[in-house]
Design brief:
By secondary structure, this protein is α/β, with parallel strands linked by helices. Helix 1 links the parallel strand 1 and strand 2.
Amino acid sequence: MTFTTLFPNSQQPDHGVFVENRLRHLVASGEVESVIVAPVPYFPSAGRCFGGWARYARVDRLEMRYGLTVYHPRFPVIPQVGLSVRPALLAAGTIGFVRRMLAKGANFDVIDAHYFYPDGVAAVWMGRRLRRPVVITARGSDINLIPRYVLPRRMIRWGIANADRLVAVSEALKRALVDLGAPCDRVEVLRNGVDLSVFRPTDRGVARQRLALARPTLLSVGHLIERKGHDRVIEAMRQLSDFDLMIVGEGPEREHLSRLARRVGVANQVRLLGSRPHATLPEVYGAADALVLASSREGWANVLLEAMACGSPVVASNIWGNPEVVTTAASGVLMEENTPDDIARAVRSLFANLPARAATRAYSERFSWDDTTRAQIALFRGLLAQHISSSTSE
């Protein structure tokens, strides 16, 4: 059972798409079956006047995505003050649904939870009651941000101690888990991959024409929120007057970013393209000359590999997992500091020795999903054998 609140749904088609992508490749191996339980917050009304919260009410309770069955049970959320109680609310709101599912004949051997808090903590609680082993995958801010809060940190450490297996998507996240008390030999690094059949070079001339690109163009992709650093890229454009910038994403910072571009005098260089379906991104990646990722926090930034697979090198902040992705001149460059000045310097450095797009694509081919899928299968087989042996001896 894949258990996570980070999974796409009818109202948020790109929400947690990296979890879905990993699972799709795992199931495609033919070695694993999975039913997905992806709870969403309860909200009583789907009325448009309720803004973002109302979309949760519009999420279908059962969906089929790429041949996978996805259930969306509801769980209560207390806005603003609910962080410390969210694992309990998530578990309490979900376990009854899972028990009914089991009573109707569904079954599963392992709970595979994604995102450590609240999802992983709730999964361990449920696993104890359902007598199923639990694997938790740490993905980013669940380990590099949330443990700053006292009670969530305590519960995360409880989850670390009681989960059967721990997975990190980068070596940096593994080190963070170890710092929180995880034994080093209990944490396996299973990096995200990139779907090389989807993210691939397109007809660059056609793509640039469709997007009306006439000059060297940078691309920034991600939710329009502070930690993604779009504002720093916009400010860097003052020193990059011979470049244009496309920003793909939607979020609460949109108006702020528009005002910032006008205030610093680069509005004629910056285009906010809004949200784009994930499957349409290869054209945008392929049209751009380089991707700029100025995030302040990441676990494993999928956009880096997606851009490279389409032939576009990257300029990335030197944080968390990014140095594990950007390792050669063919892949791009890392900024020294995550500031507008250093973004501009890094862009100039990249374009002074711009790699061939075929070389960037070839570099990305090291990161297919195959190795991760094989490692996941081995992990689940080993865990299941151990669990069966332990149950037999009791």
